[in-house]
Amino acid sequence: MNAQQNLAVRLTERSVREPHQLAAVQPVRRSDGGRMCYHRQTLAQLEAQSSTLARAFEARGLEKGSRVVLMMGPGPDL
Question: What digits encode the pLDDT tens for the residues 37-73?
Fold first, then answer.
């Protein structure tokens, strides 16, 4: 896989160019008035979250090329 096809590389590059660009919107609950409330995440926030997860993997001895399975429910953290 070359760098152009790597999602992590593309996310990092784009988050530098457009940090405040909206990256993801996830419905989370309804307000007391019945309106849907959303969790919004910018490219910079997504990059920061991705980097934090990568550092946690590295701290546990995982290296580039390691295969990882994440088991979690659907939601903004996914």
Answer: 998 999 999 999 888 988 999 999 998 888 888 887 7
Note the pLDDT tens digit of each residue in 4-39: 668 878 888 999 999 999 998 888 889 999 999 998
Q: Which tokens go with 69?
A: 């399975």
Show the tokens assigned to 18.
């457009």
Q: Which two tokens stand for residue 34?
A: 């019945």
Give the C-alpha distances (Å, rounded to integers) separating 76 from 1, 32, 59, 61, 63.
Answer: 27, 21, 24, 26, 26
Q: Which of 6, 3, 7, 47 lies closest to 23 in space, CA to CA?
A: 47
- pTM of the entire predicted model: 0.71
Rounded to a whole number of angstroms, the CA Rg of the chain reads 15
